[in-house]
Specification:
Shape: globular
Helix content: 25-40%
Oligomer: single chain
Distance between the termini: 53 Å
Strand content: 5-15%
Number of strands: 18
Structural class: alpha/beta
Length: 570
């Protein structure tokens, strides 16, 4: 048995092999779940590592396991008085958790820890993840490369994300006090309709006061921010961040060449690419650069240097399943369009529902606008008689919740068709995705949709009215682009917490596009606030206050699919 200081006692080789096998069996049986026995097994195995590479691998895996311990597990740990190495590891974890928000403080705290635990294996060679964080602290700021489509049909989407990212760098408007009851829509354009054609909408360069100098030989664009000319209520007092940002057009060169060019340019962290084909190409490219991809893979792949962030309809569906479950509903139906989007959404909803402990989920599709209008004219409603998606038991209970994935003009037909077919006494609760909300829908729409709950990104809930005003002016109230703008804002925040994001399953960020947390394979989950149409007003359904929010602008929902699904949501 190795000592607590990591030095093996003199033993025959067969006994050493037996002990190594025993520790490896403990680790394998845990299936990457952190327990004290598994951590002890890693510590014991460290003394048997044959070379420096194996020792470093052991340190990295020990640290990864420690960072997965929940606060409750930490509070319940009981260790022996002679477990000096384990105590040192736990103190290192505590040092990290107490100082991780300030990298300079973390560097000093770890230096102090190394003095207090000179015999701990990690004191001689820190886990790679911590080494990277300390390098960021000493190097002040990483050089960031934005990989976005800045030409071609997807340019408008890339511009919106780029604008959000650069605005977050310069400093965003602070939240202001709530508007008075008689205030106008914060966007200044209550009745403004979103652009029907994304190619005709304003690009992110409009009104941003910035300049971009193109370097044709590399395809890179270096942004130099000048003061914004957009009028807002309040701007953060924090100084402008002068971190180097290089922007690369992913429609200009092959992805592999751009990554190599970025490496030569000194980039250490890539934000993007956005388009799904490019994200899929990442799986075939070996690069040392850290990457925050702005889309997801259909089959997630674990790569130590890649995380995935998207405006995913599947995220909304999972969020809807959790919300409906929390409202004590147990017999849901998902009403979807007859499209691939509908299939993806209902599958994600059903999978999350079963994780929560639910049983049968029903699905039902609706037709085109013309088909629904003809049905209404014949007095035919929607009877909600779906078929099981994933079923563990037969569906016997009546539907008590309907999650509707529809555009606004579709929802204006779907709700009365449900009302037509279902008696008021048996009417299920109705929930809608963010597809169905758009700018300028007006009081008549809110009254017609009375009782429906819907989800939205925080940017459009009125939490920060000046920021919403700023976004609305830049994109003429085009909600699809405002969503991508919020995504760009959050990408800036995630870029500055990339190492923490890779290490911590407990990672959490309150962003403009949602409450962000980490799932497996470093894929980011977005959770959205929920609102309700209530007597012509919109109220926050999951807030303590029941006070109505002002008009359409303070709470309107947006979704890239409302005007044609945006690339960040695919």
């Amino acid at each position: 048995m190795p000592t607590q200081q990591g030095q093996p006692t003199s033993k025959p080789q067969d006994k050493i092999s037996a002990e190594i096998n025993r520790y490896q069996t403990i680790i394998g049986a845990a299936h990457n779940q952190p327990t004290l026995d598994v951590i002890r097994a890693y510590i014991a195995l460290a003394s048997y590592a044959p070379d420096d590479a194996a020792r470093q691998k052991n340190l990295d895996e020990t640290w990864q396991l420690l960072t997965q311990l929940s606060p409750q597990q930490m509070s319940e740990l009981v260790i022996n008085a002679n477990e000096y190495t384990l105590q040192g590891w736990l103190d290192l974890l505590n040092t990290y958790q107490n100082n991780k928000q300030d990298l300079d403080k973390l560097r000093l705290a770890i230096h102090d820890w190394q003095i207090r635990y000179p015999d701990n294996p990690a004191a001689h060679s820190l886990p790679i993840a911590l080494q990277q964080m300390l390098q960021e602290a000493s190097g002040n700021h990483a050089t960031i490369g934005l990989f976005l489509p800045l030409s071609g049909s997807a340019k408008i989407f890339g511009d919106a994300i780029r604008q959000g990212f650069l605005d977050a760098q310069k400093g965003l408007p602070k939240p202001s006090l709530p508007l008075p009851a008689n205030a106008t829509d914060p966007s200044g354009a209550v009745n403004a309709e979103p652009s029907a054609n994304p190619e005709n909408a304003n690009t992110a360069g409009a009104g941003n006061g910035g300049t971009a100098a193109t370097e044709p030989e590399t395809g890179a664009i270096t942004d130099t921010a000048s003061p914004t000319t957009t009028a807002v209520s309040t701007i953060n007092d924090a100084p402008v961040n002068d971190q180097t940002i290089k922007v690369y057009d992913t429609n200009n060169q092959p992805l592999a060449e751009l990554l190599e060019q970025a490496k030569q340019d000194g980039v250490t962290l890539v934000i993007g690419p956005l388009l799904k084909p490019n994200v899929e190409q990442l799986a075939q490219i070996e690069t040392p650069l850290n990457i925050l991809a702005l889309n997801e893979l259909d089959m997630p792949q674990k790569r130590p240097n890649i995380c995935y962030f998207s405006l995913s309809p599947e995220d909304e569906a999972r969020n809807a399943a959790m919300h409906i479950w929390q409202q004590q509903k147990r017999s849901p139906l998902v009403l979807i369009p007859r499209t691939e989007l509908g299939n993806r959404v209902v599958k994600a909803f059903a999978q999350e529902w079963q994780k929560l402990g639910g049983q049968t989920v029903l699905q039902q599709s609706f037709g085109t606008l013309d088909e629904m209008r003809r049905s209404m004219n014949r007095g035919i409603g929607i009877r909600l008689s779906g078929t099981p998606v994933i079923s563990t038991t037969p569906a016997t209970d009546p539907v008590d919740a309907v999650y509707i994935v529809a555009a606004a003009n579709e929802l204006t037909l779907i709700k009365p068709m449900i009302d037509m077919a279902i008696s008021s006494r048996k009417k299920p609760a109705l929930y809608a995705s963010s597809r169905s909300n758009k700018a300028g829908s007006g009081a008549d729409f809110r009254l017609e949709m009375d009782g429906i709950q819907f989800s939205d990104i925080p940017l459009l809930t009125g939490i920060n009215v000046p920021l919403m005003q700023q976004a609305a002016k830049k994109f003429t109230n085009d909600y699809s682009l405002m969503r991508l703008y919020a995504m760009g804002i959050d990408a800036w925040s995630l870029a500055h917490q990339f190492t923490q994001m890779q290490q911590e399953m407990e990672f959490h960020l309150s962003g403009a596009s949602g409450e962000l947390s980490i799932m497996d394979n470093c894929t980011i989950l977005r959770q959205l606030p929920w609102m309700k149409f209530n007597n012509g007003r919109i109220t926050l359904e999951n807030a303590n206050s029941t006070e109505g929010l002002d008009n359409t602008g303070n709470t309107n929902n947006i979704d890239g699919t409302a005007q044609g699904e945006s690339p960040g949501s695919k």
